[in-house]
Each structure stands twice: as C-alpha cells, then as structure tokens.
Amino acid sequence: QVQLVESGGALVQAGESLRLSCAASGVFSNINTMAWYRQAPGNLRELVATITTRGSTNYADSVQGRFTISRDNAKNTVYLQMNSLKPDDTAVYYCNLRDGFNGAFGQYWGQGTQVTVSS
User: 103 — phi, psi (to 5°)?
Assistant: First the structure.
C-alpha cells in the first residue's frame, strides 16, 4: 500500500510564495511519475505539474513560470514551489503518484492540503 502525505498548505497574501511537500511511503516502482493537482470549490480537479523519476517536468499554462516542481528520489518526496501566488491559485492541492511506466501499476492520491491566497 502506498501512502502520500502532503504538507505546507497555508493562508498567504497575493504575491507571496509557498512550498508544498509530499512524502510517499510504501512499495512502488522506481519508475513513476509524481504530480500535483488542485481543486477549487465548484471546479473539477486540474493538473498543476508533473515530474518523472528522471526529472522531466510538465506544467499547466496557468502556473508556468511561477511554480516549480521538483523531487528528491532518495526521500521519495515531491515539492511544489509556488511563487507570485494569486487568489485564483486558491484550492486544495493534491499529490499524485502514478506507479510504473504510464501508471501501469496504479495510481495513488494524498489527502490534500489547503492553499488560500488572499487579495
């Protein structure tokens, strides 16, 4: 069983920065993709950023240039550095792990961490 535990959510003002962390534990392949998603009230869950085991990254257009995803494979931890935060970034942020190539062995979700950006 894989567990993902997020941390770092907070209430901040527009323009400030925040870093989220997600630690994965359990048994999973050393080939995997970790990602951050977010869901605002009344909206669908949307992809924010992904990072493969080799460090290849992908970002949603709305966060490109402001957010940076990174990972520490030795610690099985993924991070999301969020700069120049906007009120529109307010959401619950979820960590995701797709186990194996293209998630062949399944995917897992964290419980979410709240990020609130005030104007």
Answer: 70, 30
pLDDT for 12: 98
| Pairing state between β 3-7 and 18-25 | antiparallel
Residue 99 and residue 36 in contact, taking contact as beta carbons nearer than 8 Å: no
Q: What are the beta bridge partners of residue 36?
A: 49, 95
Task: Look up residue 95 and give its two tokens.
Answer: 């960590």
Of the candidates 65, 35, 41, 37, which has an alpha carbon nearest to the alpha carbon of residue 53? 35
Q: Residue 30's pLDDT is what?
A: 86
Three-state SS at 77: strand
DSSP state, residue 15:
T
